[in-house]
Give the backbone structure.
Amino acid sequence: MDTPRLDPPYADDGRSMLERMRAGDPYVADDPDLAEASLTARDLAAAYSALSPRQQHLGRHLLEQLLGHIGDETEIRAPLYVDYGFNISIGARSFVNHGLTALDVAAITIGDDVQIGPGVQLLTPTHPVEPEPRRAKWEAALPITLGDNVWLGGGVVVCPGVTIGDDTVVGAGSVVARDLPAGVVAVGNPARVVKHL
């Protein structure tokens, strides 16, 4: 079966899939170079997650290799799941509880003093609605930003392209599909502001 010809933005423009991904343009996710980068990241995340709690001090070196940036006094409890790692920046004195899934096809920026509950998902990838480019494994991504002193309760899902302002609290199990301003409490699916702090 012949692969259908795809029009822009899915047409070949001479850039590598990594270049396309980093530019925020559609790319083919199963590209061999991207697959290798993802395997390397998942190996590092698995090595970190395999450490016992008493060995976590040894894991700092692994996290520094895996992540784009990790601030002083930041703690990440295993297990940790990432796509590439290098697109994740976490500020100082932040705490990430067990089971963070951070799909960092685009940048994930986490501020200082952030609290992330267990089982949180930060999801930057998007997929075409059109069937042919989706069948051909094209995808793209939009960045996620968490401001300083944000608190995400357990099981929160943050969707592609979302920014959450400083000091905002998101209740457990909420799905954040749109930006949230600074200094509010938001809950629900989709998350809605219920209180100003």
Summary: The radius of gyration is 18 Å. The mean pLDDT is 93. The first strand starts at residue 27 and ends at 28. Residues 17-196 form a domain with the UDP N-Acetylglucosamine Acyltransferase; domain 1 fold (CATH 2.160.10.10).
